[in-house]
DNA sequence: GACGTACGTGAAAACCTTTTCGGCCCGCTG
DNA sequence: CAGCGGGCCGAAAAGGTTTTCACGTACGTC
């Protein structure tokens, strides 16, 4: 395969480049018969227009940058996928850049992306805490997952507080009253927010946390196991555990299983993240909260498109999470 | 921030665009003093060259496409990361496209990428079986993880056979003699290859598989659990289990734990993939085989660069895997 | 003082496409 | 028959950069 240009096509069709261009782009001022000839010539040479040249003149590159710090992580990928399919793949392609949490690498990538004249930028954080704004750029930017600290930017985030509330609400509806919350690193706003949502819902019901307080620790199975042992020790009549992540939930389930405490009949367990390799394969399969990240990605793409068309928005938009019920929770009795 | 062009810079510096270009690109035929003036002007306007225009004339877009079918999966990401850092991020940016296993979507993406004049293409499969070649393209292509069926293409794959051999070799060195192999879907060449490597190594040692044959099934924890129960039933004196994936290994560990069979003192367990969320957090942490995919990605980028520079290669290159020892294996006694 | 050389600079072409505008031809109207 | 309008096409400019080549100046050499 070689590389035909529009001029080659025009020559083969016996017309000028201008006409060839119009023919291929569906412009009306070209006779049907001529158009047909051009189209055939283009096919014959397997012509595909040089997007660089197009971008040069339309001032639109048809590309966007996705700047992440969480490539190995599991948050940016679903967002990326959502974004990818919200932009028609023929219209817009996405440049993926992973800054690996390094600010200077991020600057570097940013520079490269601007140099490539991306039409917009999606910035995905590694954790849901606010991050510093990229400042004023010549292209629109959407922050996803981790919000920008500048209210003039547009940030799209998941509703962690609502997630905590939803989780506890589900447990209450299952008839549970002695609900504990084991979660991860307290320096994560996600941990704080989920806990707050959980406690709020309990309070509404006139309940307090089993175990007396939130069990903060680490985002790991090991912590889930350790905390569960301590919890059972201190509060053996607990009838539900809300884990701050699916990893933690796996640890919780593991210990309950070891102690021959049946899930869900005696203790219900709910996780967070819907990380399917963990949630689907656990014993029993884990009820959990899905962050709906593909949706977030799709919306990010839409907002970015809107901004590119000239109608930017700003502020923080919060998106609801979704309860995924599996078998680790069930009504009492 | 606005968008300065080279002309603006030139005007501000009081030189022609030609001179400005040469000054910024380190061409020798510019007086030092002039260069300095241009550079300052460029900084002042925060000029960044339009890569589209550069690409148009140099016939190099400085981009490559990464075409995958496994974005949600865990194979393409490490490869992508390896590739990303092998290309200097300032030299080359990567377009990420996920075909989601759909051939027509793949064609679509391919068309778009060629239209964007990518300088090269990396194709990553979702599973390690051979895939049909994309055929003759105007840019070099490297197939990674899943090899192309056309020997004229260059394919980079992991050594699954060697991995199976390495796993069993390690178990043998731990003094194990009654080694079973529980693995996934037999339609995957990965499953077949790993099994073959395992059996070969056993044969060299004059051993046969505990349980009589390879236990093919599914790539899931549940199958790992089920198979282990059957295995213990039929062959209670097994002293090592080689699991075809870390997921399966988790299932294996789970049942052994349930049956109060100590790992590694009575039965050693080794997994495959080094999927860290599974392997690191298991009880005990899992010895496993790492596919070294970042390395594969880096090599893919290097081979692609070489091909872009005019020295293409072809055939299938196989890359060694790596044993990661944790605590689920140990010498007997 | 004439000439050659080296160096620094600028004009212009090239990359490929889109779009505007002018021109041509045809048929129609008055 | 003159004039006019509409339909179709091509010439040319534009977009931002790199590169080639020619030009001008200053200097050194004979």
From TrEMBL, chains A, B:
GO molecular function: DNA-binding transcription factor activity; transcription cis-regulatory region binding
PROSITE patterns named in the record: HTH_LACI_1, HTH_LACI_2
SUPFAM superfamilies (UniProt xref): lambda repressor-like DNA-binding domains, Periplasmic binding protein-like I
Pfam families: LacI (PF00356), Peripla_BP_3 (PF13377)
CDD domains reported for this sequence: HTH_LacI (cd01392), PBP1_sucrose_transcription_regulator (cd06288)
Domain HTH lacI-type residues, every copy: 4-58
Keywords: DNA-binding, Transcription, Transcription regulation
PANTHER family: HTH-TYPE TRANSCRIPTIONAL REGULATOR GALS (PTHR30146:SF109), LACI-RELATED TRANSCRIPTIONAL REPRESSOR (PTHR30146)
This protein's name: LacI family transcriptional regulator
Species annotation: Actinoplanes xinjiangensis
């Amino acid at each position: 395969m070689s590389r035909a240009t529009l001029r080659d096509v025009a020559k083969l069709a016996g017309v000028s480049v201008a006409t060839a261009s119009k023919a291929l782009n569906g412009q009306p001022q070209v006779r049907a018969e001529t158009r047909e000839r051009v189209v055939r010539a283009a096919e014959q040479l397997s012509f595909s227009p040089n997007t660089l040249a197009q971008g040069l003149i339309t001032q639109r590159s048809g590309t966007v940058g996705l700047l992440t710090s969480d490539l190995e992580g599991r948050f940016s990928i679903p967002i990326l996928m959502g974004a990818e399919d919200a932009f028609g793949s023929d219209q817009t392609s996405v440049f993926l850049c992973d800054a690996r949490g390094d600010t200077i690498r991020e600057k570097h990538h940013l520079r490269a992306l601007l140099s490539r004249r991306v039409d917009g930028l999606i910035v995905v954080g590694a954790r849901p805490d606010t991050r510093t704004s990229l400042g004023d750029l010549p292209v629109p930017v959407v922050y996803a997952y981790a919000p920008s600290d500048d209210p003039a930017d547009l940030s799209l985030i998941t509703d962690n507080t609502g997630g905590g509330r939803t989780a506890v609400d589900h447990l209450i509806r299952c008839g549970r009253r002695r609900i504990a919350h084991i979660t991860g690193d307290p320096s994560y706003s996600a941990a704080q927010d989920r806990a707050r949502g959980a406690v709020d819902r309990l309070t509404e019901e006139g309940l307090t946390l089993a175990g007396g307080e939130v069990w903060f620790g680490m985002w790991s199975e090991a912590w889930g196991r350790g905390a569960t042992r301590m919890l059972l020790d201190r509060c053996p009549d607990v009838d539900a555990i809300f884990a701050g992540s699916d990893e933690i939930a796996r640890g919780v389930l593991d210990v309950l299983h070891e102690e021959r405490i049946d899930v869900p009949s005696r203790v219900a367990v709910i996780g967070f993240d819907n990380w399917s390799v963990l949630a689907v394969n656990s014993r029993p399969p884990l009820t959990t909260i899905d962050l709906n990240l593909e949706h977030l990605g799709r919306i990010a793409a839409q907002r970015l498109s809107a901004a590119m068309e000239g109608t930017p928005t700003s502020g923080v938009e919060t998106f609801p999470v979704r309860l995924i019920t599996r078998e680790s929770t069930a009504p009492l009795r």
